[in-house]
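Schema walkthrough. Field components (list of strings):
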Amino acid sequence: MSEIEIPKEFEDKVFLTNSEVLFILKHKNERMINEQNETQTAKEGQIKTMEYLKEFDNFHTKEAVTGFRNTGLDLEPYELVYLANLAPETYDEAISLIPSLKNYDDEKITSILDSLSKYMNKNQDEYLDN
Amino acid sequence: MFFRLILNYNLRIHPKDLGPHLQETIKEKFEQEVEGTTHPKWGYIVSVIQMSVVGKARIEDNTGYAVFPIQYEAVVFHIFKNEIVNGIVELISEAGFTVNVGPLSVLVYSKNIPEDMTYDPNSTPPCFKSPDESRKIQIGSHVRIKVFVVDENKMVGMATISQDYLGV
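Field assembly_structure (string):
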């Protein structure tokens, strides 16, 4: 089964989950509106990307993403983001999609999957100060 | 996947713009030139997060343009070989379907679709479906695909769903 190939130059880069990218883009749009800048016409790829991110935003709040990131500190950066984006529900599914997870204890992975499910389903009402 | 990267760029400004509002001109021109383009090494630049001029501008010999060295932080999109991603089905036919993944348009040809999923042109809407109809792929479906080749200049790629836990 052919695995993901990450070139060396990407290994130490900052990987972002879909949710985090959506926050960055929304924040930038708000800032531009507040500064009353003339919004430049977005390019087609940017529009498509924004629509994509809204469909596949699994976490909905920054706290949920941070919470999940904190439970996966032992993982490689790409493994954490991969899990966050693909959201596998079972251990078997996770291992099939991300074979490198076999390097960790299965209890560790199962516990990370539980917390993934928890943070994805976090009720927004719980974040009253946001 | 998406990344946050720090990159460099030389921005050329025509002498007529070297006056008041230069800072704004630099910022606007830079974003317009760089956002939505593909960096040859890192991928598609979705959005500039911040930027600054680092160092003195110099005048280009032949043209008289001022060249400003810019360092910027950007959100960049790049799909790795064999990366598994979610996407939205855009077009479908018996030959296969296309999937939107961010700015990328990915083709899944019928030979990369499991044999038990067949194309039904008569259903409303047309779809690929499993024998018991529990799995259906139609326009708007969210699918999980494994991308095995990408051309980042044209923003097209090819993928398969013939693997466990792929498809719908």
